[in-house]
TrEMBL record:
Pfam families: ARM_TBCD, ARM_TBCD_2nd, TFCD_C
InterPro entries per UniProt: ARM-like, ARM-type_fold, ARM_TBCD_2nd, TBCD, TBCD_C
Span of the signal peptide: none
Domain Tubulin-folding cofactor D ARM repeats: residue ranges: 292-441
Family according to the record: Belongs to the TBCD family.
Organism: Oncorhynchus mykiss (Rainbow trout)
GO terms of biological process kind: adherens junction assembly; bicellular tight junction assembly; microtubule cytoskeleton organization; post-chaperonin tubulin folding pathway; tubulin complex assembly
The protein's name: Tubulin-specific chaperone D
Domain Tubulin-folding cofactor D C-terminal span(s) in chain numbering: 829-1014
UniProt keyword annotations, A-Z: Chaperone
GO cellular component terms attached to this protein's record: lateral plasma membrane
GO molecular function terms listed in the Swiss-Prot or TrEMBL record: beta-tubulin binding; GTPase activator activity
């Protein structure tokens, strides 16, 4: 709760929170004890190797960190872990590195379990004192690598009978170091100096030393800050653990020193925190520094406010009741809207500390509770975000403290208010820490329906914001005490929130909550929302329009369940005269005021589109109303103006407009069921088909999706015209129209599914024999779109849309008229999907694989004419297909390469594998090449299969000559194949045709090329081809000699290097008599410059 913000270092609620997935796993015990025992036992062996040492430390950290939230599970195992590590440390055979390693592991354990509990297990024998002290004295206080050793030794030493002066000297030296040993040294000093035998002789001296150190140090330097930190820590610890009678005489001197040194004005938050901590300890000694503590509540740093709040709690506990009540009154002064969020946060922390200690009298609750309720919703906008999450978190801490400090009868008058406020915070707060703090502040024994709420909105469940707004809220609102407060909070605080995500979730939550209080929504909430929808504040206007739309649709659903019109449900006197005209008025004000233009338009356009959609779905009686023309104008204007909208919200606006168009057509352009308004049908279809030829790519996108969203009665009689326009849009391969091709491919499937399938139907109304081939040709053509621009492989968007569309159209056709699918269409579709399933981009490979398997396993009815269906089912069995992770190359490629055995799929699979094996991504290259070579090893003894594969390989190369997208990866893949001796069978034949054709294609590929990447890949292939016998070897050598004389120095150097390695591998290539001369020329010649070989050529 309040502690959360302190730990995270956040002082506001401005940042967005990550979306958190709720987890409910709780550890049941220390299950890794065997592994930990083995790790500790292996330290004498692994510490000599840096790699194994770091691996052991990392594993130990990972295991221990799992128990940060449940450290008590380690308790039964702490003793044997400590004994094993101390045995290593005490051993005379242990080198210093192993000793430091032992202390490092001890520190990790103490960090997880806490040093107070862990140190109780350390041995306290007198025999250990001298070795521990000697080892500590031998440490270098400034060695950053061994601070864990010093830290643990200091903590160990504080548990023993001291050797007074030596311990004090060592402790003082460690109070000035920069690492965590300084904290341990302050603990040591506090326990050591307050001992009865030490305080008589050394307390005064140590305080003099500390005050002198504070007076002489400066917080303007790093060293001075460290010294001040150590001295202030030690004093704070001394006044915490010492007796009041012992320190009373020194308190005025210490307070005077703090005032003279101006610690409270330091620029270092840590020093100010320690100053406040010391002042509160002094306040427990004499009750004078109250004003300083109250001022600390408003400090800009959380750690200072937290320390001041605890100090006020401790000091107030020593005061009489009357004076304590005055302190409470002073704390309440922090809760003013003239104060900053820091003051509110500090005030909440102080109230929680006072309440936790029982210092807040019940008579003060009427004054305190309203302030806490305000703090639970405190959210001050600052620029583009807001602050206040720490205030709300601290307010939850106050509620938690009150529930434990007061009797239920004392809290009874305020229980409902507090319960509603906490539930609202737990469900609707934007900050996850606040939601979790509120969820654990609910108390099943005090609050109404507490047990049910705690179960539904537990710590883990409220971690997911969508789950809170859309699911948990509905459950809690079913309890009548919480229904209206939750609705009122959403209307008052959330539909006008600065974060658009919160506004949208709030409106959806209002939709879901409407069945819980329909009359309240219709008679109270709607009259509040409609004026706000016409207001001047952008966020309020946006949220109110969305909320009006969602509540209207929810009311329609309720009315429809009872076979009543929605106007009857909301026709009470308070809204009937206003509500029916308000949607029109909203639209007119938005358009006339130009609120749909500029930055505000990016919010208002989707909001009004949502209003149009929900009004249409709610069957509002607006037929023949002029507002319908206005609504249609706004939708059309939005689809035409997409290029004027910034990229972020563009897709959302486009989707909102398309959804609104579909709902508007369904409700208002259908005079009779199944019949379209002829005029509107002609206008809309012609308009959107014309938009497919626009010079603006986004207008094309909007027009395509608009055509795809039209209802069936709007398509009837216009199908041929629509499909022709979409097919033409898909076929234009200009780079700038990639998004248009993608959306046209999506729309084509939507149109086909909407129109339906009939084998004997007309091609202008349904998908039939006359148009199904054209649809498939267009979509299969989209599968070959590999357009590249500055954004990368943008053609992948088109291919992904085409794959989805092929699946949807195929399943639709198969379900009604499977005879329309010819073997050629199915073969082309499955081969194209196989190729995409073998390509390099994980996302699109996964999509293609899932579509491929979906079509293969479809059996209601089955897709006809799938080539090699039985073999495919053996490769992708039904029971194992769902578990196959196509995104993971290690899982996908072993399955894909099995398609190389099937003749129909071999060419396309190999084409897809080419760009994966010859690609750049390490994991993709590794697993794809390994799977490919595993297949090649299996067919080495099958001459027919190897011959068929080699023909397919040459076919791929021949079809993609000068196509750098394929040819360069192909050369890289070919180099790997030759290096792995995949074609050893051909090396025994003189001038094998495969080798001759391959050499010819390689020469053609690099002819006149200036692409160094391609040339270097070709060099590697030529060096691999040298293994073949006959004239082909001479031709390969000739090509390499030409490349040795290439104009580019990098090509000459690469050729010389690889030829040198090749000659070492194949010693029969050159006559042994001249081998030494050749090798010397290759190695000694400076290939970066023009040389005699180049000149002679």
């Amino acid at each position: 709760m309040a502690q959360t913000d302190m730990d995270s270092g956040e002082d506001g609620g401005g940042g967005g929170e990550p979306e958190v997935i709720a987890k409910t796993s709780v550890l049941g015990g220390f299950t890794e004890s065997t592994e930990i025992r083995a790790l500790i036992s292996s330290l004498p062996v692994v510490h000599e190797n840096i790699v194994t040492l770091e691996s052991a430390i990392e594993r130990f950290l990972v295991i221990m960190d799992r128990y940060q939230e449940q450290p008590h599970l380690l308790d039964p195992h702490l003793e044997w872990m400590l004994n094993l590590l101390l045995e290593l440390i005490r051993s005379e055979q242990s080198p210093p590195l192993l000793v430091h390693l032992g202390f490092k592991f001890l520190y990790i354990i103490s960090k997880v379990r806490g040093y107070k509990i862990f140190m109780q297990l350390f041995p306290h024998e007198v025999a250990d004192l001298q070795p521990v002290l000697d080892l500590l004295c031998r440490q270098d206080p400034r060695d950053p690598e061994t601070w864990e050793t010093r830290y643990m030794l200091l903590l160990w030493l504080q548990t023993r009978e001291p050797i007074m002066d030596r311990i004090l000297a060592v402790a003082k030296s460690y109070l000035m170091v920069t690492d965590k040993s300084r904290d341990a040294a302050s603990v040591l000093v506090s326990k050591f100096v307050t001992r009865p035998d030490v305080k008589l002789k050394r307390l005064g001296d140590f305080l003099d030393w500390s005050l002198t150190t504070i007076s002489q140090a400066s917080d303007q330097t790093m060293g001075g800050t460290v010294i001040l930190d150590g001295a202030l820590q030690s004093l704070a610890q001394l006044f915490k653990h010492g007796k009041r009678d012992d320190f009373l005489q020194y308190a005025p001197v210490v307070l005077q020193c703090l005032a003279q040194c101006h610690v409270a004005e330091s620029s270092q938050a840590t020093l100010r925190k320690l100053g406040v901590k010391l002042v509160q300890r002094l306040g427990l000694t004499f009750l004078k520094p109250r004003l300083q503590l109250l001022g600390g509540l408003k400090d800009k740093e959380t750690i200072v406010r937290w320390s001041a709040a605890k100090g006020i709690g401790r000091v107030t506990g020593r005061l009489p009741r009357e004076l304590a009540d005055e302190v409470v009154g002073s704390v309440l002064d922090c809760f003013s809207f003239q104060e900053t969020d820091n003051a509110w946060h500090g005030g909440c922390l102080a109230l929680a500390e006072l309440g936790r200690r029982g210092l807040l009298v019940p008579s003060r609750l009427p004054d305190v509770v309203p302030l806490i309720l305000k703090a639970l919703v405190y959210d001050e906008k600052r620029g583009a975000c807001s602050v206040g999450s720490n205030v709300r978190d601290a307010a939850c801490y106050v509620c938690w403290a009150f529930a434990r400090a007061y009797e239920p009868t004392e809290l009874k008058p305020f229980v409902t208010q507090i319960a509603c406020a906490l539930v609202i915070t737990a469900v609707f707060d934007r900050n996850i820490n606040c939601r979790r703090a509120a969820s654990v502040s609910d108390h099943s024994g005090t609050f109404p329906y507490g047990i049910d709420i705690v179960v539904a909105a537990d710590y883990f469940a409220v971690g997911n914001l969508n789950n809170c707004y859309l699911s948990i809220s509905v459950y809690i609102a079913s309890f009548p005490e919480y229904t209206r407060p939750m609705i009122d909070h959403l209307v008052a605080m959330k539909i006008n929130h600065w974060d658009g995500v919160i506004r949208q979730l709030a409106t959806k939550a209002l939709h879901n909550l409407t069945p819980q209080a329909p009359d309240y929504m219709a008679t109270t909430v709607m009259p509040q929302l409609l004026p706000i929808a016409l207001g001047i504040d952008l966020h309020s206007r946006h949220g109110a329009i969305l909320a009006s739309a969602e509540i209207s649709h929810a009311l329609y659903k309720l009315a429809n369940q009872n076979n009543r019109p929605v106007t009857e449900l909301i026709s009470s006197d308070c809204v009937s005269d206003q509500y029916v005209v308000r949607p029109q008025q909203i639209f007119v004000v938005v358009v006339v005021s130009c609120l749909c233009r500029g930055f505000g338009g990016e919010l208002m356009r989707p909001a009004v589109c949502s209003l149009i959609e929900n009004m249409s779905l709610s069957k509002m009686p607006f037929k023949d109303d002029p507002v319908i023309t206005g609504w249609q104008w706004l939708i059309d204007d939005t689809l035409k103006s997409l290029h004027l909208i910034s990229p972020g919200p563009r897709d959302g606006i486009k989707e909102a407009a398309v959804s609104a168009l579909a709902a508007l057509c369904e409700q208002y352009y259908q005079p009779q069921p199944g019949m379209a308004d002829p005029q509107m049908q002609e206008v809309l279809v012609s308009q959107y088909i014309a938009g497919l030829k626009s010079t603006e790519v986004l207008t094309r996108c909007g027009s395509a999706l608009a055509l795809g969203s039209l209802p069936r009665f709007m398509i009837h009689g216009k199908l041929h015209q629509i499909l022709s326009g979409l097919q033409q849009s898909c076929s234009q391969r200009e780079v700038c129209f990639t998004e248009a091709r993608r959306d046209a491919a999506k729309a084509m499937a939507q149109v086909c599914v909407t129109a339906g399938v009939s084998a004997q139907g007309g091609s202008d109304s349904v998908v039939c024999e006359g148009n199904v081939s054209a649809v498939y040709r267009a979509l299969l053509d989209c599968m070959t779109d590999y357009t590249l621009d500055s954004r990368g492989d943008v053609g992948a968007w088109v291919r992904e849309a085409a794959m989805t569309s092929l699946m949807e159209v195929t399943l639709c056709v198969v379900g009604t008229a499977p005879q329309l699918l010819s073997p050629g269409l199915v073969n082309g579709m499955m081969c194209s999907l196989a190729q995409q399933s073998a390509e390099k981009i994980d996302r699109y490979r996964a999509h293609a694989g899932s579509v491929f398997v979906r079509l293969l396993h479809s059996n209601n009815p089955a897709v006809p004419h799938i080539p090699h269906r039985e073999e495919l089912l053996a490769i992708f069995p039904t029971e194992g297909a769902e578990g196959l992770n196509w995104n993971a190359p290690s899982q996908a490629f072993p399955h894909i390469t099995q398609l190389l055995r099937l003749p129909q799929y071999q060419y396309h699979t190999l084409l897809g594998l080419t760009v994966s094996v010859g690609g750049l991504t390490e994991s993709t290259v590794r697993f794809s090449s390994q799977s490919l070579f595993d297949h090649l090893m299996l067919i080495q003894q099958d001459a027919a299969a190897l011959g068929q594969f080699s023909e397919a390989l040459l076919h791929v190369f021949r079809d993609n000559l000068r196509n750098d997208r394929v040819s360069i990866p192909f050369l890289k893949m070919l180099d790997q194949m030759l290096a792995r001796a995949c074609f050893d069978t051909f090396t025994t034949d003189q001038d094998h045709q495969f080798c001759v054709d391959l050499l010819s294609l390689c020469k053609e590929e690099i002819k006149k090329s200036k692409d160094t990447q391609k040339l270097r890949s070709a060099i590697a292939v030529f060096c691999g081809l040298i293994q073949f016998q006959g004239e082909v070897r001479k031709k390969v050598l000739f090509q390499l000699l030409l490349l040795l004389c290439h104009p580019f120095p990098v090509i000459r150097k690469t050729t010389a290097s690889q030829v040198y390695e090749m000659l070492l591998t194949y010693d029969d290539v050159i006559d042994p008599d001249v081998m030494d001369d050749v090798m010397t020329s290759l190695s000694d010649t400076n290939w970066s410059e023009n040389n005699h070989l180049c000149k002679s050529s």
